[in-house]
Fold these 4 entries.
Entry 1:
Amino acid sequence: QVQLVESGGGFVQAGGSLRLSCVASGRGFSGNYMGWYRQAPGKQRELVASIYGRGNTDYADSVKGRFTISRDNAKNTVYLQMNSLKPEDTAVYYCNADFDTWGQGTQVTVSS
């Protein structure tokens, strides 16, 4: 069973930066797809950024140029570097592996 553990969330002022980490473990983990999603209060969960096994990436328009997703295959870890954070980035951020496993989420709060 695959498990995902996120870390790196916190409280930051607008314009600041945070780096989220997601470590995968367990049998059956392929890592062919890893994604970061977020869910703000009262809103649906949305895709923020994704990365595939060959390294190709995709981003939501709202974070392009500010967020960067990367992975360290040796460590089974995916990162989300978030720069120039805005209050509208406030949400719980979730890691997803292979479209079917979710982490517990990590809170990101950006103050204006």
Entry 2:
Amino acid sequence: QVQLVDSGGGTVQPGDSLRLSCTASGGEIRTKGMAWYRQAPGKELEWVATISIDHNTYYAHTVKGRFTISRDNAKNTIDLQMSNLRIEDTAVYYCSHRTSWGQGTQVTVAS
């Protein structure tokens, strides 16, 4: 089972950008579809974006046009570039493949 480590979170202001990274070990991500999820305080886990083995990308309507998911198979990493961040994007963000999950990285958007 692949192990995932999330990083890159922080506190930013509305309108700022932030890039999250997910580093995988114990397996190659090039054969895996990967996804980002997030969980805001007091809310359920929410799917954010998915990237397929063929680099096709899919986004939740709440982030489409602002977030970009990408993969670097050589580095075994999945990134989430987030732009024009909003207060409602505040959440813990998790990288995932099936039953494997990263530990999460906190993103706080506050003015």
Entry 3:
Amino acid sequence: QVQLAESGGGLVQAGGSLRLACAASGRTFNNYPMAWFRQAPGKEREFVAARTPLGRPTNYADSVKGRFTISISRVNDKNTLFLQMNNLKVEDTAVFYCAARSGGASGSADPGQYDYWGQGTQVTVSS
């Protein structure tokens, strides 16, 4: 059974930083795209960043370029997806979700392309 578990959310002041982590278990996602999405209250889920371990370019939403960095590492024998978020803004407040594809090669911005989702972690940025 595939499981994605996010952690690292919290409350931070504008201009601050947070690092989100998503531990993947149940299968190896070494060769398949993984991504971060977010959903603010009353809004649709939106793409944040995607990483394709096959060496293709990392994909970021325009709103986070230069502030967020997506990466993947092996931690405690589990593939872990990270999202380093710097210079956070009030408008970044949302529930952040990690997602993984079971196939494909591109880091799609379309949430419908992803097969596995975590439960989400809340990020709140205060002014």
Entry 4:
Amino acid sequence: QVQLVESGGGLVQPGGSLRLSCAASGFTFKSYAMSWHRQAPGKERELVAIISSGGGTITYAESMKGRFTISRDNDKNTVYLQMNSLKPEDTAVYYCKAHYGSGYWGKGTLVTVSS
């Protein structure tokens, strides 16, 4: 049974940083690409970043380039999203996705950027 559990969200002031984690189980983590997505209130879910199985290929959404960093630890079956210089418009529920089979999603973690 595939499980993806996100953590690390919370309330942060503009300009601050957060590191999200997504712990994966139920599949061979090191063999599949992983990605982070987000959904802001009233908006559609959008891609934040995607990382290949070995971590050698990474793609970011244009608006996240330079502020967000995706990484993975295949020994810990975990993918991370380091978010710096956060803005109020980054407020959203952040989801990780396993590109295994038809794709699996976690339940998300809420990030609120507000003063």
